[in-house]
Automatic annotation (TrEMBL):
It comes from the Eukaryota. This is Mitochondrial import inner membrane translocase subunit. It comes from Gambusia affinis (Western mosquitofish). Signal peptide: none annotated. InterPro entries: Mito_inner_translocase_sub (IPR050673), Tim10-like (IPR004217), Tim10-like_dom_sf (IPR035427). Residues 9-69 form the Tim10-like domain. It is found in: Mitochondrion inner membrane.
Length: 89
């Protein structure tokens, strides 16, 4: 069974992505860029920005994994409560 994604859902997802991207960009910029006397990005600013983004990506991945684990546990608990688990067929 294929899940159809409507155009409005795609637009909503894209807007959410852009909001997240803008928030991460702003946070990392504010934390890492300190010198506005030159147009060049200093090596420490560049490494700070990369580290900031990596930290965000790892955190997002970890939260996603924990959410999936929680969701599985909740589904198992509901199934057990309904008597769907542990019964021989």
């Amino acid at each position: 069974m294929a899940v159809q994604v409507t155009e409005s859902d795609q637009i909503k997802q894209f807007k959410e992505f852009l909001g997240t991207y803008n928030k991460v960009t702003e946070n990392c910029f504010m934390d890492c860029v300190k010198d506005f006397t030159t147009r060049d990005v200093k090596p420490e600013e560049s490494s700070c920005s990369e580290s900031c983004l990596q930290k965000y990506l790892k955190m997002t991945q970890r939260i996603s994994m924990r959410f999936q684990e929680y969701h599985i546990q909740q589904n198992e608990a509901l199934a057990a409560k309904a008597g769907l688990l542990g019964q021989p067929r």
